[in-house]
Design goal:
The chain is mostly helical. The protein has two domains: 38 residues, no CATH class; 171 residues, Ferritin, core subunit, four-helix bundle (Ferritin, Up-down Bundle). Helix 4 runs antiparallel to helix 8 and helix 5 runs antiparallel to helix 9. The chain is flat. It starts with 18 loop residues before the first helix and ends in a 6-residue tail after the last helix. The protein binds fe (ii) ion (2 copies).
Length: 243
Amino acid sequence: MVTTQSEMGRNRTGIATSPKLTEEMIAGVNEFSPSPVGGDESVIAKIREDYARDAEPLGSVPPPMSVKGVAKAALRGVKGERPTQFVDKLGERLAFERTGVRLYEALISKFDVSGGFDGGPTRAELEQIQREEYEHFRMLVEAVEQTGGDPTVVTPSADLHATMSSGILAVMVDPRTSFTQCLEAALLAELADNAAWEALAELASQGGDDALAQRFLAAQQEEVLHLANVKAWLAAAQGRSVP
Ligand SMILES: [Fe+2]
Ligand SMILES: [Fe+2]
């Protein structure tokens, strides 16, 4: 069986490795203390706040391209809803699902190298999740087009989520990470995905888009299974009982 544990080796990141060098390091910190002398964390907090007050927002949502889209957005506005919010969140999920396909592609490469482990996924199971992520992406392209939007737009929320999940992709494509470590990255993606689909289905239903809400709920149900699977595989990898 392929080991799913990290090996014991010469890890020298802790200060206990060298008490003498630790002493010198602390002496160095005391000698070259950061400026301003006597300052504390409130100084950097103040600078962060100054930047935040002057900063531009994280992008914008473009106006709908079709007359029908403009009418729909206006209707949401009249009903007291946030007309740009739905478009923003659609763009976010679309980008995330597209990245999801690539995440699973990278995960499958890791599987091929490791050959998997007892209680872990088969290649076919990973391929099925990847296919479902792709289908979700295609459905969202259609949904964006229906609202008169452009599916290639990076909306502010898409930008936000891409930045947040950039670490997940970095882990997946790092040649040093193991298949099991990449499953942990998949867990993070699936947790976020589950919550986001739930929110998107509710927003669609609030906007009176019942047909769309149903399709989103169906996608969310698939995401629930993705999450349950990844959790079970990780439990098997770590020798825990399957949740
Ligand atoms: Fe997904
Ligand atoms: Fe998923």
